[in-house]
Give the backbone structure.
Amino acid sequence: EELKPLSKSALHFLQNLLQKDPMKRPSAQEALLLPWVQKEGTAEVMPLSGSVVQRLQRFATYTHLKQMVLRMIVDELEVDGSTSARKYYQDLKSLFEQLDTDSSGSVSLDELSKGLRKQGYVLADNEIENLMRGVDANRDGGIAWSEFLTTLVDWNKMQKEDQWQIYLQHAFTKLDVDNSGFISLNELLDRLPCTLGGQTAVGPEAQAADAERRAEAKLMLREADINGDGQISKEEFFDLLRDGHAADSLSFYSSALPGDVR
């Protein structure tokens, strides 16, 4: 009775493992090749070597300005990236589509929760909510494709590529609208979405939304303005984005997989 909910391939998997004759029982390596493991079990669906949650956690530790700049770089990479980069993005797109079960173009909290748990990640509800907040840049309650891609890109590897400095220069130039050689508070403000909650506000709500955007821009400015002159120089900008600014190894973060006790 307890086995009725199981699929045929799952039952076949159990029957093989429960063979009384040890000579007929599959080895561990052979068991991994059985249909249930290959098509329905953890082996097929565990993406990025089981590091999705670690990458989400790591991205949430980045400063707000760094997150925004990385999203700008991703936009450029999608258009002008190498063939290998585009293949990597296609793989991530497949994962995104698995999570986006209603094909809305955005992964909701419920979809993220069900998707990660289906793939074997062990997370409490509040942990998934924290992951969502760390990735949902415009705070509209969902994870768009660009937000998802930015979070899961291997930035440590990207920073070692020859093009990295060029991408940083392009991002700085886009932010430095008046070509002054510095990024001002107003230039950061102009880069932020009109509303950070995903909806157009009116009246008092519009004023509150504008105040929130300005507070966000000021926070970004403080994150990089080392000398406190009220603007971000190219040197300060590059320093914020350089590798080694903080502990970035995935090993510092819990994988949220069974057996990881951190």
Q: What stands out?
A: Strands lie at 106-108, 142-144, 182-183, 232-233. The first strand starts at residue 106 and ends at 108. The chain has a mean pLDDT of 80.
